[in-house]
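User: I'm putting together notes for a lab meeting next week and I want to include a structural view of one of the chains we've been expressing. I don't have a solved structure, so I'd like a prediction I can at least talk through. The sequence is below, exactly as it appears in our construct file.
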Amino acid sequence: MRLRGEMAGSAGILLLGCGSTGPAPVGPGSQDAAGDLSVVAEAGEDGRAEASADAPVDVSEGGTPVVCTTSDGGPGAGCYAITCDVGGVHTLQANRDRLLGDLAKRKCTDACSLWAALNEAERYIFLMDTTYFGDTSSRLYPPSYGNVETALDHAVALYSINGPMAGQGVDGSGRGGNDYNRIYLGFDDFAKCVMRSFALANPASVSGYNQWVKSDDVAGPHAPFTQREMIFWYKAITDLQSNGPQFHHWHQDSDFTQSGIDARLGVCGNADRSLVESTIAFDFYHNSDPLGDYAGRGGYGWQIVDQHSTIMADWSYVPIGCASTPPVNSDPYGGGTFAGMGPSLGSDGGCVSAPLGDAACGP
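Assistant: Thanks for the context. Below is the predicted structure for the 363-residue chain, given as structure tokens.
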């Protein structure tokens, strides 16, 4: 199925036959989901919310719209002047169910059918990345607030699950590669602001709260993204950079480039300025296949996640109401179904997607 994006205004509202690839953008001069003109607060260099907002709305195709408001919090309030009503802290199961349902709707199917179509590596990629975004190390509020909501509680969209591909990666093992073994998420305005000014979430580095730090990867942010953070897990003497969760995003909305994002697998046509590329680096080459055996680093990728997470990853997760079916393919090195991958740029220059369900479904 071919998906054609139509740009509406400078922010760009993408219209797709199988559902939108991003929350309806709300920005200066654009319309929110209710049709009213609004302005989304954006974090500046110092984390201050530079614009006020009158109930902007983050909309994911598969879930309930998240309403965000910005109050006059006074000097230094920054991101914490933004309030996005996500309903508080959610269980890992509930957050995963919400996000998988969102991707399923984009793929014109239901969560049970999508989950059954994923191979084992694709399932574990989704599970390990949602684990660290739901971990205490991804809490968004500093200890003084008494709020323990995590980044996963504020994730409003799941755009793509990219499995492993044979021959990819610096070492050609199939365990790495710039476009594989990762997911793409969208966040509400509050989480987007905190991510861009991450030091605000835990300035004293208190244990049990946000542990995001600037990535020391020599490659920097993956294009077209302009900012990159990580959670430090370990670093061997022979490593050039640290290992652990890695995430890439834009430092500010104006950094967004449509042509750049169209060149990345699974997110062609995506116009969401909160888009985050999420993966985990396990070894010297920053391979990230959860089923890869990283000898000397702690075992298989998913086992390493267990060693560094403060919450239970629940590798036996099944979407609520779905049968516990075995994966179609368990080959971690290129045997992926790519059933969870979003649209990619085709040879004719259009965004191409192969939905699992009815190609005529729409938003």
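A couple of points you could mention at the meeting. The chain has one domain: 90-344. DSSP finds six helices and 14 strands in the chain.

User: Perfect, that's what I needed.
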